[in-house]
Design brief:
By secondary structure, the chain is an alpha+beta fold. About 35% of the residues lie in helices and about 30% in strands. The chain is built from 21 helices and 31 strands. The strands form six sheets. The protein has a six-stranded antiparallel β-sheet, sandwiched between helices. The termini are far apart.
């Protein structure tokens, strides 16, 4: 008899009278112990009725060692000479052994794990795949209770619960799990179908299951989920280091036990990548993380520089531009671990058990930025090719975010440098007003805006105060801001009134937009507030183009917004601007600001403006201190837009600093006027300027009488310079020319320009004013 089967003979009384070697192998009983015994003594349970009637089926036999064995048996009756049954010849085999039917072979050779249990969760049948998963032969498991064959663990209890649930409910179920198996060295994902097995009468007699190993599909879903998570978690800020930290946070601990990100130094700055590759790969550690608190495995501390040798997986990954896998036992891997241990021996215990690593280059838009490293210590599985594909996809997405952050930082640095170069660095001292200012660039992802401010000295000791805001952010807005700053200074030098200046500025913005977009006007706009303060008259003239009204704090401590028309923003075109005039007591504080100070989507403008007025009334030692007080009181912790604030405390020139004479339009009055001016200089103690002043007064008054129109007025202002102004009723502007040798005149303005520090003319409501300035201290 073959080892794969067994035979036994029983008489009509059920006593064993024959026993084969195969029967001994299956049950453990030698012939001397089996013969003469009743066959029912070997059975662990009664033979199923259907097996009795069919004389074939599966029966449970108790092995000589005590465990149960399921056997597929067939009985053949033996008749005597009289034709009566004299006994039976029984053949037995382990289920699956010697299968001859197509269905039996299909079950036994199925690629998925299939098993059959009785109603008490004891094994009745297993196919080859199930035996491979369990790591033992079918004979070892048959008849044994499932919990006896697996370790005591949560997943085992859950599996057994589902087996019982099928028996209790009589309904099939689908069970998904991620667990290990006795014969497998790693955890697997399983999709298990369990269903009840019934006999011909419909009685539930067992449970069958088929378990499909869905590990590849499971990990594919996990990787896809991790990629989706990475898309939301990486790149939440336009900060290079924060982006690297987010990448580490995604892969640890789900994909790696330790991860690090190293970048080139130029990525962290505002420089462009070098044109030539360096002989050595020098990177700076910007982020790392570990399943162990404190990341003790790291041989390189955050912020430190590391030079990677050519043999290292990191150098290979960057040289080849692909993910490089390295496993324990490989020479390059062992050298890398040894180098880490030598560099940081205190982390050696935490590196014990490192068995797999992967280096992935961070490359975006054709530029190599750095490398990401993933290491496995506790996770039992080595990195495989499909892990490399996933890591390259993840690194590619992260690299784009890092590059975006790098480009944003570079553009922000460039825009900020350009903006700072355009904003006034040191404001000149003047008699008209004491000024203080603050500029806070936005830290939002939108980038640097186009906010600006300026303080422009004008003729007659007046001063122009300007604030503006260009629509948009980034370098284009900063460049437009630069154009507007230059334009405002140029128009201010012409001494245009505020409303006229804004009209010219509006035309400029419209032309700029039209030039950028061909025939169509682009969405390029700006707001601006232009104010002129005269310390002689203490009058403030101002006009706005879509800009918030300034706040005014009077010497009595009261604060309010100046009522004025905001006007249309610059770039709308075709609409007029309205000027506002008001008298200010000396010592008033005018606060000009951009909308970032009071406007935000999470704040009420009226409430923020009220807070601004209250903050301006807080006592402060200086205007600089008051600027800080205002910003602290009004701004949120993280402003969403640029903020420019300009404070000006007005001064006034006293009557003893200004002298005015009305001039009769008669050439004979020139000498009288010149003498009056000389006497005034003597009274002021400025005799050293008398000679030049006499010449200037003579030329300007003579020109006004000869070429101008009444009324004619001479005014001297003693400020930081000596200012001489001659006004007349003609709007014709003078121009400087070089007289020919035979010309009798035409040298007056040239003489004035040569003798004075500055000169110019401005239009007034009644004509024009020609002015010039002389320094009160000798010019160096």
């Amino acid at each position: 008899m073959e080892d794969a089967s067994a035979a036994a003979i029983i008489d009509a009384r059920g006593i064993l009278t024959g026993w084969s070697e195969g029967a001994r192998r299956l049950t453990g009983y030698p012939a001397r112990e089996a013969l003469g015994r009743a066959v029912r003594e070997l059975l662990a349970e009664s033979v199923p009725p259907e097996a009795m009637s069919a004389r074939s089926g599966t029966v449970m036999v108790r092995h000589r060692d005590g465990y149960l064995v399921g056997l597929r048996v067939r009985a053949c009756a033996v008749t005597g000479p009289d034709g009566e049954a004299g006994g039976y010849v029984i053949t037995a085999a382990s289920p699956g052994r010697g299968e001859t039917s197509l269905a039996g072979r299909a079950f036994q050779q199925a690629s998925m794990s299939m098993s059959v249990f009785d109603v008490n969760q004891r094994y009745l049948r297993l196919n080859d795949a199930a035996c491979h998963v369990m790591g033992v032969s079918e004979e070892t498991l048959l008849g044994r209770h499932f919990p006896e064959t697996v370790e005591e663990a949560e997943h085992s209890r859950g599996f057994n619960w589902h087996l019982r649930h099928v028996v209790e409910t009589g309904r099939p179920l689908r069970y998904e799990s991620y667990t290990g198996a006795p014969a497998l060295n790693r955890e697997h994902a399983w999709v298990t179908e369990m269903w009840p097995v019934r006999d011909a009468a419909g009685e539930l007699v067992g449970t069958a299951l088929a378990a499909f190993d869905s590990t590849e599909q499971y990990w594919a879903r996990q990787r896809l989920a991790l990629l989706n998570e990475a898309a939301a978690a990486i790149g939440t800020t336009l900060d290079v280091v924060r982006t690297a930290e987010e990448l580490v946070g995604v892969v640890v601990p789900r994909f790696a036990d330790f991860a690090s990100v190293d970048l080139f130094d130029w990525v962290l700055g505002a420089d462009e990548p070098p044109t030539a590759a360096a002989p050595e790969i020098t990177l700076r550690r910007v982020a790392h993380g570990s399943v162990t608190e404190g990341t003790p495995e790291a041989a390189v501390h955050l912020g430190e520089v590391d030079v990677y040798p050519s043999f290292s997986p990191i150098a290979r990954a960057m040289r080849e531009g692909r993910a490089v896998l390295s496993q324990a036992g490989e020479p390059a891997f062992m050298r890398w671990v040894a180098e880490r241990n030598s560099r940081a021996p205190q982390g050696r215990p935490y590196r014990k058990g490192v068995h797999s690593m992967m280096a992935v280059p961070l490359r975006a838009r054709g530029t190599m930025l750095g490398v990401a490293v993933a290491v496995r210590v506790a996770q039992p599985d080595d990195y495989a090719d499909d892990d490399a594909v996933f890591a390259e996809e993840l690194a590619s997405r992260a690299a784009v975010c890092v590059d975006n952050a790098r480009r944003f930082a570079r553009e922000r640095t460039t825009a900020l440098a350009l903006q700072h170069s355009l904003l006034p660095r040191g404001l000149p001292g003047q008699a008209a007003a004491q000024v203080a200012h603050r500029y806070l660039p936005s830290g939002s992802a939108a980038g640097i805006g186009g906010d600006w401010f300026d303080v422009i000295p004008l003729s007659g000791s007046r001063v122009a105060l300007v604030v503006g805001d260009v629509v948009g952010h980034g370098i284009p807005s900063t460049a437009t801001m630069g154009r507007l700053v230059t334009a405002v200074r140029t128009l201010a030098d012409v001494d245009l009134p505020p409303d006229e200046l804004l009209t010219h500025l509006d035309d400029l913005v419209t032309h700029l937009a039209s030039d950028d977009q061909g025939d169509e006007v682009a969405e390029l706009g700006a707001t601006c507030l232009y104010a002129v303060y005269d310390p002689v008259t203490r009058r403030l003239d101002l006009a706005a183009a879509g800009h918030p009204a300034p706040a005014l704090v009077l010497p009595d401590g009261s604060a309010r917004l100046i009522p004025m028309s905001a006007g249309p923003p610059l770039g709308v075109g075709g609409l007029p601007f309205e000027a506002t005039e008001l008298q200010l007591p000396e010592g008033s504080v005018v606060a000009l600001y951009t909308d970032g100070l009071v406007e935000d989507r999470d704040r009420d403008v009226d409430h923020a403006t009220a807070e601004l007025c209250r903050a301006l009334t807080v006592p402060a030692d200086s205007l600089d201190a008051l600027c800080d007080t205002v910003l602290k009181a009004v701004l949120p912790e993280e402003p969403g837009d640029d903020v420019a604030l300009l404070l000006a405390r007005t001064r006034a020139l006293g009557a003893d600093q200004v002298a005015t004479w009305d001039v009769t339009p008669d050439p004979a009055e020139v000498a009288t006027t010149r003498q009056a001016a000389t006497d005034q200089l003597t009274a002021w103690g400025l005799d050293e300027t008398a000679f030049v002043t006499e010449l200037v007064v003579s030329e300007l008054v003579t020109n006004a009488i000869r070429y101008g129109a009444p009324p004619i007025q001479l005014r001297l202002i003693r400020d930081q310079t000596l200012i001489c102004e001659v006004s007349d009723g003609s709007s014709t502007s003078p121009h400087l020319r070089r007289a020919q040798q035979d010309d009798e005149g035409g040298r007056g303005l040239l003489l004035v320009a040569q003798l004075t520090q500055r000169w110019g003319s401005r239009q007034t409501t009644r004509g024009k004013t020609i002015w010039c300035e002389q320094p009160l201290t000798p010019l160096l």
